[in-house]
Amino acid sequence: MQGLRSFCVQKDNSLSGTERLCWDNGRNTVFTSVREKQRSNQPKPAPCSTACLVALALLDCFCEAQYGIQKPSTPQKPSPQYPQQEKQNFGKPLDWKYPEEVKPAVKPEGPFEQRNPVAARTVAVDCREQSAYVEVQKDLFAIGQFINPADLTIGNCAVTGEDRVAQVLIFEFALQDCGSQLTLTDDSLIYSYTVNYNPQALGTSPVVRTNPAAVIVECYYPRRHNVSSLPLEPVWVPYSSVKISEEFLYFSLTLLTEDFLYARPSYQYFLGETINVEASVSQYFHVPLRVFVDQCVATLSPDSSSQPSYALITDGCVIDALLTGSRSRFLSRTSDDKLQFQLDVFRFEGIDSGTFYITCSLRAAPVDVGIDASHRACSYSSGWTEANGFNSVCGSCEPVGVPLPPANPGPGTGPGTGIGTGTGTGNVFEWQGEVRLGPFQIGEKAIA
Prior knowledge:
Blueprint: E1 6-13, E2 17-24, E3 29-34, H1 50-70, E4 123-127, E5 131-137, E6 152-154, E7 161-163, E8 168-174, E9 181-184, E10 188-197, E11 213-222, H2 239-245, E12 248-256, E13 268-270, E14 274-282, E15 289-299, E16 309-314, E17 317-318, H3 319-324, E18 329-330, E19 338-344, E20 355-366, E21 378-380, E22 384-386, E23 417-423, E24 430-443
Parallel strand pairs: 13-24
Antiparallel strand pairs: 1-2, 2-3, 4-5, 5-8, 6-10, 7-8, 9-10, 10-11, 12-14, 12-23, 14-19, 15-16, 15-20, 16-17, 18-19, 20-24, 21-22, 23-24
């Protein structure tokens, strides 16, 4: 009866035929239907009373109630299980980022001029009759940095002594020792030695504070002697003249800035500019000396005798100004051991490189030697003038440029410096040296 919604009961009626009584549980109604009339000769079933229908209806209600009690309940959805710890939600996402790099403030650039270091004069030699005595200052480069004596040698000879008071290292050896090289000239025997400095790393560090260097020292001995049996006539010579004749001097040419205050580090010039040069002599313990520029010649190569060449100064006269009308001149002398002069920038015709060298012959004489035709510094500008004010000695200046004559001075020690040897007779001793500058690089000025 479970799930029974309707049922029907059939009964036969002799009068109306087959009759069906149906119960619709959903609508709680009873309806009848008649199918057909039975034959009269068939037996008639017993009549069903209304009580039977009521009983059937009550039975259906009872079954419906039983079905409702036994009907399974609707399954419930399980409640969601939340974990004990959840990610905390801050709402607005974080927008943090690395801060921008802070750039340091840039310092403004001030005036700057590159200055060339001045060559140090820290090696001296005393040429004796059978030996040479060399002194080397421990501050070899004049930078306040003492060298290690073990790094200094002359040929294969090490340091033989040290003067701790004067801070000098001493070498003393025979003329033929320590890798000496003998050179013969018409008048002299020349012994040459090389002072080698090869710095090693400081302690266990891989650095050095100085650079390797090599300095050549020379001893000159005359080859010609008087071997006559005739008696020699003594000539009185002051002791100071004897001492200075045994030594040599250092000459130098230095490029200067436009204001003549600093050394100019560059050889680059342009047409229309002037080359400012200072000639000087280092006199040390000599009597006071005055320096002169006898000759200056420009060449395309370091060889002063090469061609083409152009003489700028001849016999102490700036003939370049007379020949070309340039501004080349000697400046008024402010110190006896220095002489400054200017040269107008130029180029050799037909030479595109614009490169040349200037070689000058310098002379040093004691200041007690007067200004004359052999000791002068003359410039031309609508007339000849002398740097010391003795204009009358410039009368013999000639407007003819000649190349630099063959030099008898000592060898140069590098661009811009030279060694001069003493020459002369009687009581007059002079020193000469040849100094070279360059290579100059000459450029053209552009026109807007």
